[in-house]
Amino acid sequence: MSQYIFNKELWKIGTKIEDETLPILNKYFGCDFKRNENNIFDILDFKDDDKKIIVEVKGRRINSYQFKDTIITASKITEGLKKIDEGFKVFFVFVFIDKVMEVELKDQDFKVKITGTNSILHYMIPVSDLTELK
Q1: pTM of this prediction?
Q2: Residue 104, exposed/middle/buried by CB under 10 A (0-12, 13-18, 19+)?
Q3: HSE-CB for 96 with a 13 A CA cutoff
Q4: By residue range, what is the domain housing residue 57?
Q5: Looking at residue 12, which CATH number applies to its domain?
Q6: Within a domain: residue 55?
Q7: Which long-range contacts (CB under 8 A, 24 or more apart) does 111-116 make?
């Protein structure tokens, strides 16, 4: 059981953003992504087992230029690195108000910070390192 209170409204918003972004992801990556449906606490959102690609979608209620960095929880980076060891490519997709952007998880050296809704460890991903999905 998680030590954090489940925020159903934020979860609904996130799921809606993921559902709206899925066709864009399938086209951009040339995949047929399936949602990880084990439970609501799955760490990474979509997977294409044939092409060995995993995508985590993060909705942002700001424009892409408002901050120098965007954040992602340490648990998502950790899980992504495990999946890379299993032969997958892992991408983080950020759905900003003004555009959708991605970054492939590799051997980056991101800054870390304790922040976010639950004041937990996050990695700081420079927006300048992101690529716009077109």
Answers
A1: 0.90
A2: middle
A3: 19
A4: 8-132
A5: 3.40.1350.10
A6: yes
A7: 111/69, 112/74, 113/71, 115/71, 116/71, 116/73
